[in-house]
Design brief:
Radius of gyration: 16 Å
Order of helices and strands: HHHHEEHH
């Protein structure tokens, strides 16, 4: 399986699901008279990122992973979203960006050298395969799952099918 097949469809599916999850969260807040900021700023624990940053990081990881694997300029997006609509716009832009990659851009990506800060404060060189398998996808799913968990913890009626979306 190519790195294109291992990344682009997974990113698109999960980001699409996150958008639908955000729609459910917004409807939940409206139906119960909850201020949107209560959910957008919610965290699982005080030292963790709030929902908004979880979504922003998931988007960043998807776009940056594809850019690194295709050896194109890494997109930098300011984290300015403060509403459900703005977060959904960011997700939509990220999906469009990821979908624009061609399979051929990932040819040879398995063995490309990719240097990334994996949280240690110093860059670590990885092959494209290790980068995708051991860093990009796990980090992406971490933030997507945490966003889901924050909303579920705050009473939004979600289930596994919401997270998986269309399989």
């Amino acid at each position: 399986m190519s790195l294109f097949d291992s990344s682009v469809p997974a990113f698109v599916q999960t980001l699409t699901s996150l958008s639908a999850v955000l729609d459910k969260a917004e409807a939940h807040a409206k139906a119960r008279g909850i201020q949107p900021d209560a959910l957008l700023g919610a965290r699982l624990f005080p030292d963790m990122f709030p929902l908004t940053l979880q979504i922003q990081h998931a988007c960043d990881l998807a776009g940056r992973a594809c850019a690194r694997l295709a050896q194109v300029e890494i997109p930098i997006t300011a984290d300015t979203e403060t509403t459900f609509a703005e977060l959904n716009q960011r997700i939509g832009k990220t999906i469009a960006y990821v979908r624009a990659f061609e399979r051929s851009q990932f040819d040879g990506a398995e063995t490309r050298n990719i240097t990334v800060d994996v949280g240690s404060g110093r860059p670590v060189p990885l092959s494209g395969q290790r980068y995708l398998s051991n860093f990009a996808l796990p980090s992406f799913y971490f933030h997507a799952t945490t966003a889901y968990d924050i909303l579920r913890h705050n009473g939004v009626e979600l289930g596994k099918r919401d997270f998986l979306g269309a399989v």
